Amino acid sequence: MADTQRTLIFIKPDGVRRNLTGEIIQRFERRGIRVVGLKKIHPSRELAEQHYSVHRERPFFSSVVEFITSGPVVAMVLECPNAIEVTRGMMGATNPAQSPPGTIRGDFGLDIEQNIIHGSSDPEAAAYEIPLWFKPDELVG
Ligand code: CMP
After folding, report:
1. DSSP 107-122
2. How many Å lie between the centroid of ligand 1 and the Cα of residue 44?
3. Which of 99, 117, 118, 130 could serve as 105's disulfide partner, Cβ 3.0–4.6 Å?
């Protein structure tokens, strides 16, 4: 079996407001993915800006920071072999219009900004994002 890998996921304020949290976590669990960290938090501006710092120069930066801080999110660390690739496949494309039915964004989203869920894009992003959101003692393997 491939080595396990961890990824940082959060259900964005639109997904939480629409009560999709349970449905989304259930999809991951039924796939066999382990939840090693889980919490509901209202992100600070500082956390949001740090999280999206790679996009600081992009035109959508201030808008996405505004959106992510508009209400609570449900953040989690998920673990399984090839966790980043597996969860990205389950989430679908960033733009829900390009996400097929059966994916989380393809089933629940229409808006490229309010796109229900975030997941680390690659191992470097996961290594940056996991300690940003979770203290080591909040992760239970
Ligand atoms: P996410 O995976 O959380 O990472 C960056 C976020 O910026 C992205 O999902 C979208 O929600 C948001 N965003 C808004 N506009 C764009 C855009 N034009 N391209 C990429 N991401 C965008």
Report:
1. HH---SSS-SEEE--S
2. 18
3. 99
Strand partners, 74: 11, 40
**pLDDT per residue over 65-111, tens digit each?**
999 999 999 999 999 999 999 999 999 999 999 999 999 999 999 99
Please tell me the residue having the least CA distance from ligand 1 atom 13. 113
Q: Domains, the chain, ranges and CATH?
A: 4-135 (3.30.70.141)
Active site residue 55: no
Site to probe by mutation for ligand 1, drawn from 112, 114, 121 as the one with most ligand atoms within 8 Å of Cβ, is 112
DSSP letters spanning 34-54? EEEEEEEE---HHHHHHHTGG
pLDDT (0 to 100) of residue 2: 72
Which residue out of 94, 103, 111, 116 has the highest number of ligand 1 atoms within 8 Å of its CB and is therefore the one to mutate? Answer: 94
Beta carbons of 40 and 134 less than 8 angstroms apart: no
